[in-house]
Amino acid sequence: METMKAIVYDKKSFPDKLVYREVEKPIPNDNEVLIKVHSVSLNAADYRSMKMGLIPERKIFGADIAGKVESIGKNITLFKSGDAVTGDLGSYGFGGLAEYVTAPEKAVILKPEKISFEEAASFPMAALTALQALRNKGDIQKGKEVLIVGSSGGVGTFAVQLARYFGAGVTGVCSTGNVSRTLSLGADYAIDYTKEDFTKGDKRYDIILAVNGNYPLLACKRKLTQNGTYVMVGGSLSQIFKSIIFGRMLSVGSKKMKFLAAKPDKADLEFLVKLMGDGIIKPVIDRSYPLEKAAEAMNYLKQGHAAGKVVVLVEPR
Q: Cβ(73)–Cβ(29) under 8 Å?
């Protein structure tokens, strides 16, 4: 039996439930590729799933991965051994916090050479969420005014850049220390929430993208233009549930209150990775940790103050 190093969920472990240990190396089936993982980025989906008791079958979290194809199943036609790939395994059993992971062909795409493994692991779930929120739910168009509440986190940093790419006017809401970064990513304005409450005042927005759900839904609705759309993509579990339940009740008339659960989409991933390759969007990486310190990385992300993405390096730099 071949083995590998991995971060495994162990509910009996204290204080951290994520333990660094030796486990059996996975074997791909006929419709899977085996990937030697280089980097994996963490997402709220990891710790929320853990909190809700939604544990992957192999008890290994980590959805956003980048690495090289080690071997392929006999039905694989799009990849070969040695291909550099990236993808989102959130709907395919997770498993990224390990030296190797298996994935269906539809879950991964080729990684452009000009993008590092660390960068490639940083974008799938966060950038996909930002894209689908702005385009699919918000119907973003050139000239629209977009407010991004929580512009400094993983989703927020991509949302600022994508909104600018689509030709919208962009305002970000963030803490004092992240104002300059929000502006440097393409926002026209940055509101420091420690000094100003964006729900006050006369300014209205066509799209409000709430990565941080700390503000009352009714107050956010008042900040929408007549046909505006509010889209929640983040926040605590209780905030998300409130958004789903009360958002429907508040979506009476022309103003819409929506919630997005991003869905894996290979075409969207390829669109986003092309924008990265062309230098139009770029990941903001706050911190990187070695695999054995993934529990520390997860705890840092849970605090909610990461300025961009938190990455675990399975292969050291």
A: yes
